[in-house]
Write a structure and sequence with these properties.
Elements: H1 2-18, H2 20-24, E1 37-42, H3 45-56, E2 59-61, E3 68-74, E4 77-83, E5 96-100, H4 104-113, E6 128-129, E7 135-140, E8 146-150
Parallel strand pairs: 1-4, 5-8
Antiparallel strand pairs: 2-3, 3-4, 6-7, 7-8
Length: 156
């Protein structure tokens, strides 16, 4: 665990030194690819669906099964929520789903109105600013999955 954190810290430091140019130089895939969906395994399907719909406004898509739900995250990307989890989620903030918004202050106000605690990566009560100038905060969903919320949409 300690090695994993050290490696992650080194990667973040290198990325901050090399800057956004490094990100732009990544090789393109050999064929067209996009993110299709992210799946999470939850204890209480109804509670998790309500959370993601209420906090982020994701729209539920009809499905013929009762053990799972699909939510549209926009731009063709889906969140698949599968019920039945028995064991607790055990992960760090490095294992997270990231959701971009265009106004972090409005998002923070919405979270606070819903009494959803948030903090920076380091646990501080202010948004952190990444090396690329994007502000970010973290919250947990009802099962304990970490979610990064950032204002990357302001740059798109």
């Amino acid at each position: 665990m300690r090695l994993k954190r050290t490696v992650a810290a080194v990667v973040v430091c290198l990325a901050s030194l090399l800057g956004p140019q490094l990100l732009a130089q990544n090789a393109a895939p050999t064929q067209a690819m996009v993110l299709d969906h992210v799946a999470i395994y939850v204890a209480d399907l109804k509670k998790s669906v309500s959370f993601y719909k209420d906090v982020f406004g994701f729209q539920q898509v009809s499905m013929p099964v009762t053990f799972a739900a699909w939510l549209s995250m926009g731009h063709g990307v889906m969140l698949h929520i599968v019920g039945g989890r028995k064991e607790p989620v055990a992960n760090s903030k490095w294992d997270h789903l990231s959701i971009a918004c265009d106004d972090i202050d409005t998002m923070i106000a919405s979270l606070e109105a819903k009494h959803i605690p948030w903090a920076s990566m380091e646990g501080k009560p202010t948004p952190a600013v990444r090396f690329d100038g994007i502000k970010q905060i973290f919250i947990k969903d009802p099962d304990g999955y970490w979610i990064e919320i950032n204002d990357a949409l302001k740059k798109r």
